[in-house]
Amino acid sequence: MLKSFPSPTPEHWRELARKALKDRPLEGLVHLDLDGLAVRPLYAAATGASSLSAPRASDADGRAWDLRAMVEGDQAAEVNATVLAELQGGAASVVLKGAVLADSAPLARALEGVALELAPVGLDAGLDGPDAANALAVAAKGAPRAQLMFHLDPVSAFAATGASPRAMDAHLTLAANTAARHAGAYPDAAFFLASGRVVHEAGGSIGQELGFACANAMALLRAAEQAGLSRERAVAGLILGVAVDQAWLDGIAKIRALRLMWATIARALAVEAPARIEVRSSRRMLTARDPWSNPLRLTAAGFAGAVGGADAVVLDGFTRARGLPDAFALRQARNAQLVLMEEAHLGRVDDPAAGSWFLDHRTRELAEAGWREFQMIEAEGGLVEALRHDLIQPRVARARAQAEAALAEGTAQVVGVTRFVDPAPRVTATTPATESAIAGGGDACRPLTPHRLAAGLEEVA
């Protein structure tokens, strides 16, 4: 009979670590993240394991998560061709962005050949979300089982641009009234996207992003209740959104932390509803001068979404930092998820991170950091008031400054930009991306402007 291996002790680990460090202090292995949380080299079992509060609900085509494609464009025929190619190529749903959302006629043309009962269609229309939702409702022709996702998220659009044509309270009311108007005709529709991604893209920390997402959810739910939607229907129509980047361990913990936070909110609302989470790949992590390392970053982000338990995962094309991706870049983004899903079988376990001492600790700590930010925003009068009075923006700016300092000092790296730089990167095909201008005059705040971390360094190179 084989003798059992001796159980290692922390003292034994410290002894070996000192040898490896050549007597340099062990404290050098501990670092602080942008939330000021200590990330340690060794963890013990967590007290009260932070597993998912409930399995993810997605079951698109029998899959563990919804492979969701982002299709951006202004010409209905071109968008339609891309949508059909994405769905035929393995995507289960799409999110549309661009001028095709301006009216029901171009939107209906863009969706020709799409069975809305089988392939969910979402919108990314910013402050024009209610008009786009109305157009989608018309294009769906009253089909009661149409899988519509209006993705109404006016506060994120306001935060990103710093302007709106009317008071933000009116935007929230309009979004909620739009949801209430279509709730009867489309019982399976999702109305709201309570996203925190605007904080991530502006350089914020994970805790700040989680707190923003939860405060966004509360702003939308309050408006929905005032519009006459029942609390149960409003919650059922809510999707939470965060970004995932190349730091896949933190991405896993972030998604799990958001589920824990939502479970607490749902209990307070006396509603039994598991979190529905859509993650999108980070744009702040992408490189533009040499985009050929981006597929690895995007795959790591997709891995985080899958293992973290996201219900839907959206990956950008690897050239998105330069402009709208071509068919090859879109296919690569789609196939990265298909390999993770069909070949790596990442969805076979509901919460594969459960039991990892590091991830259980990290999940709990990020949930607590996010909850502190959420409570702070609520104490500041809610999300809109906190943005108007410039209370969130300085916190995000400090986190971004820390991240930029780490790159400048060399304690953080961007492959292809700060290390392993290709002197003559290959050219990639893109189409310039255009963003609709936001009319001001109604409300204003200092914007949480999206910023790629490598942008300034690429200009120097």
Can you walk through the features of this model?
The structure is a single chain. Helix 2 (76-88) packs parallel to helix 3 (104-110), helix 6 (168-183) crosses helix 8 and helix 11 packs parallel to helix 12. The chain has helices at 10-20, 76-88, 104-110, 129-139, 154-161, 168-183, 197-201, 206-226, 231-236, 248-269, 294-308, 327-343, 357-379, 383-388, 392-409, 455-460; strands spanning 31-32, 38-39, 66-72, 93-97, 121-123, 148-152, 163-164, 190-195, 238-244, 277-281, 312-314, 324-325, 430-431, 443-444. It contains 16 helices and 14 strands. A hairpin with a 5-residue loop joins strand 1 (31-32) and strand 2 (38-39). The strands form four sheets. It has an eight-stranded parallel barrel, surrounded by seven helices. Strands 1-2 form a two-stranded antiparallel sheet. Strands 7-14 form a two-stranded antiparallel sheet. The protein is globular and about 70 Å long. The model has no long low-confidence stretch (mean pLDDT 93). It has 461 residues and is of the alpha/beta class.
